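Reopening this ticket.

The earlier resolution said the output was attached, but the attachment link was broken on my side. Pasting everything inline this time so it's all in one place.
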Amino acid sequence: MVYRDDSITKFEYSEETLRSLYSMFCYGYNHGGPQAEALWYFDTRISYQELMDSIHAFAAGLAKEGVKKGDYVTIFLPNIPQCVISVYAVNRLGAVCNLVHPLSTRQELEYCVKLTDSRFILAFDQNEKLCEGLGAKIICCDTTTYFPKSPKGFVLKYGYKFLNRKIEKSRESLRWTDIFDAGKAFLKDGGKLPKDTMKAEDTAAIMYTGGTTGDSKGVVLSNAAINASTSEMILEKLDNAPHIGIAFLSVLPVFHAFGLSIVIHAPLSGGMRAVLMPNFDTKKCANTILKEKIEIIAGVPAMFERMYPLLKDNDLSFIKHMVSGGDKVSPELVARYNEIMNTQFLPGYGLTEACGACLLTKLGYKEFPEGCVGKPLRKNTICLVEPGTTTLVENEGELCIRGPMLMDGYLNNPEATADVMRLHDDGLVWLHTGDVVTLDEEQNVIFKSRYKRMLKVNGYNVYPTIIENTMEKCPAIAEVCAVGMPWKNGDTRVKLYVTLADKNANEEEAIAEIKAYASGQMNRWHQPKEVRVIEKFPMTKMNKVDYKVLEKGL
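Inline output:
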């Protein structure tokens, strides 16, 4: 039975509450009560008291290992309890969470570790070997640690261990449980955590977004920015109503800005519960939504497309908010969900540089305009400019945003920062999103197109330039261009057009070599689903590859 207290209906976030991620969690702990459920993970239920004790124990263990304020700690984990514990423990010590996709390649991981000069990497049993030789201590989590202590949990643990039995382990790794146990013993013996000196303006996290040069950019997010995104969403959607015990579907990953600020940090900052899913599995997610009666569901359009057949014939009256971001939402998808819920499907818009949530469709619309991503969240302001300039326009232009949830800049990259954080004639600095939009009669933002070539693959940002820069090094390739191709349920996958270095090579063998090279160099979202060999590329008048022609198909 999930603990609920319907007498609590208000949120009150003070300046002290908004000081750090940890202080926000402390508010959630006090607001919901230590007995309230904080996390659900494969039927394991973790209370706020248990989570608070775990955060303190791991923070103490990290401190004993030498983690201190200002250090960068790379968190290379999926959505498992140790990941949540680590984020708050690192923040409690005043250190910075360097959040990296756990399926990143060695090259991608090395870039992120070296950019931040991370001294510690928190990995798990499927990627720990990848972390060797980077000059950082490796602390490895066992995915099964928090599986339920039940016959079902035993089966899950045995199955997981069997399926992953051939994955190579690292001999350099420290065990997460050893660090945790050492910290717990230290506190039990009367030891104290270092003084909490974290400030709102201090950096809380580094997240990654692609760049036109082929290198990822480290987005610097302060405590204040993340907490602004979290608190404004909570106050706008959940204030003045009972909420203790309400569940969020926490399947969007913690290294995703919306995943951290909204689907994990928001419930834990409000005495609510996060239902952790380490990866998106259509059947498991749909069944968990129905079983746990999850009231707040946030995801990407492809996720909702896939779950619809499994949800449509069930009673969904328990759902309070269904929010989608990360890609364009079709009016057909909106209409289908609106027919089976007592609430409305709410597309939104965000980007890493603004902590993942900037705009959201308001409840009460009569007809959903195609491309609508809503209106600015509280304290956000928008304007439109001629793309690539600071010249204001009224009808269609590049979306620019101001607000408390904006990044501080790109880490060690002032040129890239200056390119998107621009001073306007009003004397204020605005974030240029690179997205072309219009405004309708009700001042809803209508998304039109990407100013740049970014693709959305399973909800993740995928940049053709990064793919091309990587694949140009493949011995079989002379020239390459990456474009998006339609995939199941309205999703997108990567398609490569290539010319071969050896014009006499066997085409099938060359394609196999290219796919194998891609598999070894890039994570799966960047890998091509299809490779097509062509004789020569179509060119623009400026003698550049005409990728628009390739997008339409030759």
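Reporter confirms the inline version is readable. Residues 455-552 form a domain with the GMP Synthetase; Chain A, domain 3 fold (CATH 3.30.300.30). The chain has a mean pLDDT of 93.
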